[in-house]
């Protein structure tokens, strides 16, 4: 049905991604690191900002990246791979990983743009490898082990019973 | 396309409300937001102009409950219906799992409905989707207005084969809003069950 395969994330994937994100948070002196699917769905989070509304954050970041990517095409660039928003207290650094994933780093004046850039580069390579594997697996997967292969009409109806 | 997260034991699907300008897409989401219990919904985000026309999108996250131990989450989006926002509509359609096409039943919007459905078809095709292959439902909105035309006429124009599930609605009062959403959610989950990709 779709050009890009469905994103299926297992526990082991999650652990690996969180490990890299936590490492990045630490090495970059950042407040938080979020990995978000380009469609606006949160994949993992790390760091100290855990209390915030990550669902809103994810959809807005994805909208932001979609809009700037559209803008890039208009002026003849393939993409803007890095976005940076500077705030009074917190700054947001956004990069694309493995074409489909958005890495968001939030940092304040305990860090610097230079340091974040440097650390993001290294972490980005590791994350790309992990995601490439995830996507490769999704492409070859025939969907047999999807938890939804087994659900019945009744299961679906029950969701709407009230 | 849906995101299945075994680690968090949840499944995320993206539903998009499409249709001509002022047909009532945002009103659908507002009603769903108002009538959904606190723990089942997240914040509604509206990126709109000063006159409340959708500029980029509205966003409303919902969780419907569990299926076999997996939380089902639906991310509802609306597109901006005004013709000149086509670039934004294309962006929002990316990764869609299902579409509600909201038609405006008023006589003077008859052609706008047809054009918007053509626009949806074209924008899906650009992304390699065929409208016949994705879950979608139709909503004939604003049935409360005196200048709305008979449903049969709308059906003939927008659903000539009668194969698409369609619903009469009045988003302002909420009639038909949840029926439409549930029908689409069901189609999307059924599609996932078939393991279609
Ligand atoms: N009478 C009546 N008015 C409605 C109904 N649904 C929406 N409206 C009104 O129609 C106007 C436009 O509704 P919106 O929901 O903002 O329309 P939209 O489709 O989001 O429009 P865009 O964002 O420009 O694409 C508002 O004034 C609504 O109150 C309905 O069922 N009946
Ligand atoms: Mg709107």
List the helices and strands and how they pair.
The complex is a heterodimer of chains A (162) and B (197).
Chain A: E1 7-9, H1 11-27, E2 32-37, E3 42-47, H2 54-74, E4 82-86, E5 91-97, E6 101-107, H3 113-140, H4 153-159
Antiparallel strand pairs in A: 2-3, 2-6, 4-5, 5-6
Chain B: E1 3-5, E2 10-18, H1 25-35, E3 45-48, E4 54-67, E5 70-78, H2 86-93, E6 98-104, H3 110-126, E7 136-141, H4 151-158, E8 166-168, H5 177-193
Parallel strand pairs in B: 2-5, 2-6, 6-7, 7-8
Antiparallel strand pairs in B: 1-2, 3-4, 4-5
Strand order of the largest sheet of chain A: 3-2-6-5-4
What is the number of helical segments of chain A per DSSP (H or I, 4+ residues)? 4
Anisotropy-based shape of chain B: globular
Silhouette of chain A: globular
CA distance, first residue to last residue of chain A: 31 Å
Domain count of chain A = 1
Overall mean pLDDT of chain B: 94
Number of separate domains of chain B: 1
Distance between the termini of chain B: 8 Å
Mean pLDDT of chain A: 88
Largest sheet of chain B: 8 strands, mixed
Main sheet characteristics of chain A: 5 strands, antiparallel
Instruction: Write down the CATH topology of chain A.
Output: Beta-Lactamase
Helix content of chain A: 40-55%
